[in-house]
């Protein structure tokens, strides 16, 4: 084998023991939890304390170790640090007791049934683990797996409810990443914060890079403060690189998950 992509979990452990095979990560995206019903006043997810509790229930480092061999970076940010205009936030701590207190304060001392949890394919084992963390503080979900094209269509058509495990590799800067998920015209936007929409439209037209960066940082700060999404980690997209490869093409194109440009990929002579 010369090159393999997306090595995770038990397969990663096997790959790590394979003579001549080197594991190398690239960081094209961030995983997060999204609550499509948070815009409905009747939903438990409408309460910021409930969303915060869900974040505190997740042991990001343990999940990282199990899913990506410890290569991923736990984060509180939606946008990977490698991308232009990104703003980094430290991840929330793993604190189940505080999560349970927040749920009780919000009126759910015994937790609640949160419906389906949709993991982005093929990260199904990650979805199961996240469901387990939520269950441990009383947020009960049922993992519902879908084929990628079907899930993409259902999300775009606003048919997915409850809990979604999101991920994207779109674009090369924070604006491109945010557009589909937080702006009014976004393909996967369930609700809009007027202040965020105003800032987003203004930064699109802004030619001064410093001013544009400030507005995009402000958007990310608002999303963080309001807990609209729960970032988990910057995904380590792990490659297996065989002994014949001289240049695999990792990170030659910033935040691109695969080999590229292909004309620069080389085997050893």
Structure explained in plain terms:
This protein is an alpha+beta fold and 269 residues long. Helices cover 36% and strands 19% of the residues. The protein has 9 helices and 9 strands. The strands form 2 sheets. Strands 1, 2, 3, 4, 5, 6 and 7 form a 7-stranded mixed β-sheet that branches. The protein has a two-stranded antiparallel ribbon with strand order 8-9. The chain is globular and about 65 Å long. The protein starts with a strand and ends with a strand.
Write the topology of this structure.
Elements: E1 3-4, H1 9-16, E2 22-35, H2 48-56, H3 60-68, E3 73-74, H4 96-105, E4 112-118, H5 124-136, E5 139-143, H6 148-156, E6 163-166, H7 174-182, H8 194-205, H9 209-226, E7 229-241, E8 245-247, E9 266-267
Parallel strand pairs: 4-5, 4-6
Antiparallel strand pairs: 1-7, 2-6, 2-7, 3-7, 8-9
What's the quick description here?
With 269 residues, the chain is an alpha+beta fold.
- Pick out the low-confidence regions: none
Task: Please tell me the total number of domains.
Answer: 1
Helix- and strand-based class? alpha+beta
| Average pLDDT number | 94
The CATH superfamily label reads Dipeptide-binding Protein, Domain 3
Note the beta-strand portion.
15-25%
What is the string of helix and strand elements? EHEHHEHEHEHEHHHEEE
| Rg on CA atoms, Å | 19 Å
Question: Tags for this entry?
Answer:
single chain, 269 residues, alpha+beta, Dipeptide-binding Protein, domain 3, 7-stranded mixed sheet, 36% helix
């Amino acid at each position: 084998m010369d090159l393999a992509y997306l090595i995770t979990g038990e397969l990663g452990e096997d790959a790590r023991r394979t003579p001549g095979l080197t594991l190398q990560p690239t960081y094209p995206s961030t995983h997060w939890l999204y609550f499509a019903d948070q815009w409905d006043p009747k939903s438990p997810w409408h309460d910021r304390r409930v969303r915060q509790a869900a974040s505190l229930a997740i042991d990001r480092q343990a999940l990282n170790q199990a899913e990506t061999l410890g290569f991923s970076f736990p984060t509180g940010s939606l946008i990977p640090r490698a991308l232009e205009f990104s703003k980094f936030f430290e991840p929330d701590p793993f604190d189940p007791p505080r999560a349970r207190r927040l749920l009780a304060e919000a009126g759910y001392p015994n937790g609640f049934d949160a419906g389906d949890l949709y993991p982005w394919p093929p990260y199904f084992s990650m979805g199961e683990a996240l469901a387990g963390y939520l269950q441990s503080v009383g947020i009960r979900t049922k993992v519902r797996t879908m084929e990628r094209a079907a899930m993409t269509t259902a999300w775009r058509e606003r048919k997915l409810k409850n809990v979604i495990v999101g991920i994207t590799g779109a674009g090369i800067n924070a604006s491109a990443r945010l557009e589909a998920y937080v702006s009014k015209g976004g393909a996967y936007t369930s609700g809009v914060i007027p202040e965020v929409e105003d800032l987003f439209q203004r930064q699109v037209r802004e030619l001064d890079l410093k001013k544009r960066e400030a507005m995009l940082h402000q958007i990310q700060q608002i999303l963080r403060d309001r807990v609209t999404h729960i970032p988990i980690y910057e995904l380590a997209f792990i490659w297996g690189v065989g002994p014949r490869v001289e240049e695999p093409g990792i990170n030659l194109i910033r935040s691109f998950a695969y080999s590229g440009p292909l004309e620069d990929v080389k085997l050893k002579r």
